[in-house]
Amino acid sequence: MSVRVLSSVADVFGAVGPAAQEAAHVLVEPVGAYAMTAGRLWSVVGALVGLAGVVVGGLALARSVRRVGHGGRRGAVVALVAGLAGAGVGGMVVAAAEGGPGTGYGIVGGYVALVVGVVAMVLGALVVLIARRTARPGVAGARRTI
């Protein structure tokens, strides 16, 4: 509701003018720069989950290039899932935001979570493709897994 609507409703019901205006002002007061709102919290959670996916995906990619162990397939799956979760949370924050940057809805963090989540998914998919390529028997230069 806007300030004018709240003010006019308060005047119609006979409320004191300054008190009603103060109550309406409190309802539309801007959020502080360092206040942790729900939107900001969810965008931080999404960005951290996506960042964990990027770290795990990078480590899995390094392992698959070195060809040590199982080629980093488990890390690839973790990176894909964490990236999907981070991008999903970031997308929900961006979709639910009703204002731009600085309004407290966490839209900037939501976009960061989207980008970091997509990067994690790309790293995970790259590791899966490398693991699939090297695990095929009969391909020249491919190593065999036991």
TrEMBL record:
Task: Tell me the protein's name.
Answer: Major facilitator superfamily (MFS) profile domain-containing protein
Q: Which residues cross the membrane?
A: 41-62, 74-96, 108-131
| Record organism | Nonomuraea maheshkhaliensis
Q: Taxonomic lineage of this organism?
A: Bacteria, Bacillati, Actinomycetota, Actinomycetes, Streptosporangiales
What are the record keywords, sorted?
A: Membrane, Transmembrane, Transmembrane helix
Against Pfam families, the record matches this protein to: DUF6223
Tell me where on the tree of life, at the top rank, the source sits. Bacteria
